[in-house]
Amino acid sequence: MATLLRGARSSRQLVEAARLSQHLARRPAGLPRPLYAYARSRHYATQPDQDGKHNVDGKTPPSSAKGMEHLYSQQSPMSSGPPQPPGKKPEDDGVLPGHMKKGMPASMAEDIDKALQRVKKEGMPQELRDTIKECSEEGMSPARAAKLWRLTTQMARQNAESVINEKVKATETEEPKKESTADPENKSKDGKKEKKKDDPFSSITEIKFDLSNFLLTAFVAYLLYRLVIPTENSREITWQEFRNTFLDKGLVEKLVVINANRVRVYLQRESVASMYPDSPAAQPGFYYYFSIGSVEAFERRVEDAQNSLAIPTSERIPISYHEEGSWLNTLFAFGPTLLFIGAIFYLSRRAAGGAGGGGPGGVFGMGKSRAKKFNHETDIKVKFADVAGMDEAKLEIMEFVSFLKKPDMFQKLGAKIPRGAILSGPPGTGKTLLAKATAGESGVPFFSVSGSEFVEMFVGVGPSRVRDLFANARKNTPCIIFIDEIDAIGKSRSKQSFGGGNDERESTLNQILTEMDGFNTSEQIVVLAGTNRADVLDKALMRPGRFDRHINIDPPTMEGRRQIFAVHLKKIVTHEDLENLKGRVAALTPGFSGADIANVVNEAALVAARRMADSVVLADFEKAIERVIGGLERRSLVLSPEEKKTVAYHEAGHAICGWYFQYADPLLKVSIIPRGSGALGYAQYLPGGGGDMVLMNMRQMMDRMAMTLGGRVSEELHFDTVTTGASDDFNKVTSMATRMVTKWGMSQKIGYVYYPNSSESSDAQFQKPFSEKTAQDIDGEVRRIVDEAYIQCKELLIEKKKEVGIVAEELLSKEVLGRDDMIRLLGPRTWPDSSDFSKYFGAGQPPLGGDGPMGGAPKPTTPGPNGPEPGQGGGGAALPPGLGGDPVPAPTIYKALEEAAKQWRR
Ligand SMILES: Nc1ncnc2c1ncn2[C@@H]1O[C@H](COP(=O)(O)OP(=O)(O)OP(=O)(O)O)[C@@H](O)[C@H]1O
What distance in Å separates the CA atoms of residue 642 and residue 619, rounded to the nearest whole number? Predict the structure, then answer.
């Protein structure tokens, strides 16, 4: 920076030198500047020379005029710089001052000197001179700065070129001389070095680069310098100097108080020029200033001074007041605003950057559609074969494919082509996948966009994006537009207006409605939309002529899950019997969506990878399913012996109920290893015996509720107090009983009515759809049903108290029990299992794997150094060393626990 500033000063000197060159040329040679200035001033001084021998030729240094001695001292405001040693011209040292050459390569300093001397010799271009003059008189402005930049760059380039030309010429003339005098031996020795040194072009590049760069950076630095530091066209003086030098001599034209702390002195330039022609004060644009403490004190001082000089009132010096901000202040004042505008501009440009396709983008491209366009040839590889378990939905949507492929077939019969379809269903059921498969099969471009991408904080962006999306689609017909999560914009207008409404969303929806109406029948654009909440969509969206088809996609059935597993199993390595594997895992995953199934398969592969296995086995799938249902095992959670015993009896209560109630779900596995968040025990049942239950009768529900209460009832029967562990069971039981009463007409007292709850109806959020009296009746009926279930459960568990104890002890000992353990301990279940259950979990089928030994195989009481061998007896969560698996803890022995509990109590 220091170099740059030095450079900046040099360029300023250069400018000044050129401007004053003609005037300086008239100056007597050899006369040091201060002496010369003195001589001139004496010549024109208003006060007569006291000793009467003023020296016009300047050969004899004159003595100082009375009262003016300080003016010609080095610190005087009238002196323009330090004195030069006598007899030495300023040009002797080159144009560039010595201090600026410090730290600069000698060649560069020499080149700059040459360039500056050329400027001095040839003068500056007229345009540049005029601009500099304007700047000094009227101040710098961005337009002038830009002009100066252009002109100086141009000049620098010309200078550099002429310096290069000179160098080339000089080298050419030197070349023959050198060749003749050079020692041939020496030349061959240092051939390379010599060549480089003499190569004119090597030095050319050097000069060109250095000089132009230097001048350009110097100019930038100069501008910065002028921005930050007040202009050098002014100089500070003291009050005394002001008074003695200017005020007393009547040279002051006016005074301007700037920002109440500084006074700018405007002099009568002509008088000053005639009195002190060489003074900087004689130059236009130059002024002195001095600082003041307060305006009042300053005014008083000026008043007193003028009084003492007996200046008549009419001729008093005018004083004006002025508020002034520097460039820097202006920059600080406007900087944040400019930054803010810049940031908005940048963000909007970025927002527009994600837009797909062309089309008008509105202001800064905000209104451009964000839809991603997939090319059927490269991007969309999904086919209907990849979408499993939704045959009806596929059939419906295939019609769209045939329309896109063979539109004539429909049109010739006068059939109107459906405009679009809404795919609705729970999350992860494959709506997006189906839409992609439609695009993949029909081989047309596919625009995918999410409903939320239309919604932006700026008004008007949503409708504009919709317009842009459809405009793009029209350019690419035939094509498919898929709007995922359309409920973000397609919510019923009456519903969303509650609480203030949302005009932007409404107008986006209106635009979609308009665009969908706007296609003519020959336009082959199909609009598919996905949503989890078809019930909240606006009716206008669903009417024929817009989304004509409503395709509901439910969670897959047993067969559907089998097919989905089949699709995803293709991607992993397994040597299992695929038919059996698919059936078994499908039976274990009731209620799973396609996305859950994809996740289970992936988890299974991860479990196998942790075992460092070559292929994924059945146990890996079962562990993955447990993990997805119950969450991660929390072996780090250490329960006290008392707690463990309570959990064992609680789970045994559930298990016994499930075993002896006819309509309860058959047990697959029960474990007392804590899982997920808060579950201390875990039991796996197969609802509906593995089949898909479509209807449930009252008996099934009562048995299920009684089984759910089995945990708490068992605690009551085996301990003198109860724990907090049953709250989730109560939640399930109460919710089921409430639905029986308010929705399913299973209470005679309440009758056959349906009362929606608050999530179903917004009215119900604020007002109950029934009277206080009915509310009390509902409460009473719910209580009655739960009590009945409780009594049913208690009667069973009192009868089977011994069996509960046996199962609980075995659980404490083994931590995990399977169906075969239960058969071993309690005998076979009285009630027949469903066909699916027997097929995959009955006799002859491998026991359920997961986190514990199954099939009654005794578990080793002392595990090996890393726990049981993976796969051996379902040893569970033992990870291979190095993968961070904790060793499986030794099984808990009930007796030992009892002992520990006794000691703990003491
Ligand atoms: N029927 C199916 N066949 C095969 N895979 C499926 C199926 N359904 C879902 N999947 C798997 O689940 C993933 C997620 O499905 P998709 O994104 O289509 O669900 P979605 O219904 O659109 O969910 P959301 O409603 O949350 O947007 C798919 O990528 C696929 O791997």
Answer: 32
